[in-house]
Design a protein that fits this description.
heterodimer, A: about 110 residues, mainly beta, five-stranded antiparallel sheet, about 0% helix, about 60% strand, globular, B: about 110 residues, seven-stranded mixed sheet, 11 strands
């Protein structure tokens, strides 16, 4: 089956620091999304990004579909960025379900 | 509605009881997904609906789990004869269709005691 691997598994940052989270996937995908699970358990969409680059404020994401990876950049981190970041992929051949990575747990300390 | 709505948010049930979890997707969204998430894990796929048709139920762990979406809108996930291992957060998501952004509800926490 498809493998969705995220790195690093855990990350601790000082407030104001920048970070890069990575998602590697093992098959061609139709859809890729990044989510933030906040400390209250809400799963929030960050980006829909099957290819290319997008930016939203301090966050940006890049997916290189041909090389099967995606990156999430967080700049000038804030304590509210803490939580778990998941990437999820929808396979090109089957569609209909998203496979989630194991997540990156981010803690931003003041 | 404005977002995906799930109920109940929290459910504690005794082992052996049946539970029903409800999902009201975003208005106009034809695709509806159910996921299960254990503590410290990523969400795992359970089942998928396109309108009222259950097109993929490959993730349902056994025959105690079932789901329906009779009118292509609200969906119910039913777990019969609950077991302690069923304890988890059950998440519902919806989208305009394959290849579109999916949006998750706040989830239903199920605890089986």
């Amino acid at each position: 089956g498809i493998q969705v691997e995220q790195s690093p598994p855990d990350l601790i940052l000082q407030e104001g620091a920048n970070s890069t989270l990575r998602c590697n996937f093992s098959d061609s995908v139709n859809n890729l999304q990044w989510f933030h699970q906040n400390p209250w358990g809400q799963l929030i969409n960050l980006f829909y990004i099957p290819s290319g680059t997008k930016q939203n404020g301090r966050l940006s994401a890049t997916t290189v579909a041909t090389e099967r990876y995606s990156l999430l950049y967080i700049s000038s981190s804030q304590t509210t960025d803490s939580g778990v970041y998941f990437c999820a992929v929808e396979l090109r051949n089957t569609g209909n379900q998203f496979y989630f990575g194991t997540g990156t747990s981010l803690t931003v300390i003041p | 509605g404005a977002g995906v709505s799930q109920s109940p948010r929290y459910k504690v049930t005794k082992r052996g009881q049946d539970v029903a979890l409800r999902c009201d997707p975003i208005s106009g969204h034809v695709s509806l997904y159910w996921y299960r998430q254990a503590l410290g894990q990523g969400p795992e796929f359970l089942t998928y609906f396109n309108y009222e048709a259950q097109q993929d139920k490959s993730g349902l762990p056994n025959d105690r789990f079932s789901a329906e979406r009779p009118e292509g809108s609200i969906s119910t996930l039913t777990i019969q004869r609950t077991e302690q291992r069923d304890s988890a957060m059950y998440r519902c998501a919806s989208s305009f269709g394959s290849g579109n952004t999916i949006y998750f509800g706040e989830g239903s926490w199920l605890t089986v005691v």
